[in-house]
Design a protein that fits this description.
9 strands; four-stranded mixed β-sheet; about 25% helix; alpha+beta
Length: about 120
């Protein structure tokens, strides 16, 4: 993928995120791996939590975690305040996580927390 960089915190793998912030940006090709590939490569037996703050690439990370979400059922925290085509990353990610039967909470600033429904206790 291409990492678009406009300086210190202005970096993203998603076209348009950084370009909206600064006109002085550059592209750098980077090798990426899916979460599923990392879990397999590292031979992880469990994943309890995913914490994602990756400047707009959170939906792609979740899409690349399909097996991990299905089999390991981690809790998820992610930054969802960026927007793609007028839709918040939190909203896009909520739609993805709904497909995996997660309870999803989106805060006022579009921070997202999610837990598999079967792990919710109401005692």
């Amino acid at each position: 993928m291409d990492l678009v960089s406009g300086g210190v915190q202005a970096n993203s793998l998603i076209p348009g995120i950084v370009a909206d912030v600064t006109k002085n940006y550059s592209r750098h090709p980077v090798l990426t791996k899916t979460i599923d590939d990392l879990v397999e490569d590292l031979k992880l037996k469990r994943v309890d939590m995913l914490s994602l703050t990756i400047n707009g690439a959170e939906p792609e990370a979740l899409r690349g975690a399909a097996n991990t979400l299905k089999k390991m059922r981690p809790r998820i925290r992610l930054a969802g305040w960026y927007q793609i085509d007028g839709q918040s990353i939190a909203s896009i990610c909520k739609d993805i996580l709904d497909q995996y039967d997660y309870f999803v909470y989106v805060g006022q600033r579009n921070g997202l927390m999610a837990i598999p429904r079967e792990k919710i206790c109401f005692d």
